[in-house]
Design brief:
The protein is of the alpha+beta class. The protein has helices at about 35-45, 95-100, 105-120, and strands at about 5-15, 25, 85-90, 125-134. The chain has a domain at about 35-125. The protein is built from 3 helices and 4 strands; from the N terminus they run ββαβααβ. About 25% of the residues are buried.
Amino acid sequence: MGCDIHPVIQWLEYPAKDNRRDHWSDLSGEWHWGRSYDLFAKMAGVRCCQDGPGHGYPCTACPVVPPRGWPEQGPRSYNLDRSELHTPSWLTLEEFKRAARDYPDWPEIKATIAAMEAIESTGHKTRLVFAFDN
């Protein structure tokens, strides 16, 4: 059985102010990517570092940051309580670029980076929120 990623781009619509917390909005629903266990390892250690060598997948890289869990305000575009989801985390644009630097021609990666850069060019912070299934 394979492992797939479920990514959602979020942008900071309203920063925390006057006793209110940050308000993050989803750019769209889940984006559908191909499968790359090397990239998943670089993003969150999935199918590599945390699973150990007995899992059958060589560890070529560990995550750019350890998995963080769901952010305080997770994506509204999908049900965060789905039992098949594991290893939730999120990356900033710069962290994601570091994790994905070996995939310059992968269309889904290029589109994700381009969307995040476009939003950040307007002065808003972005993050890529994701989890995996088996």
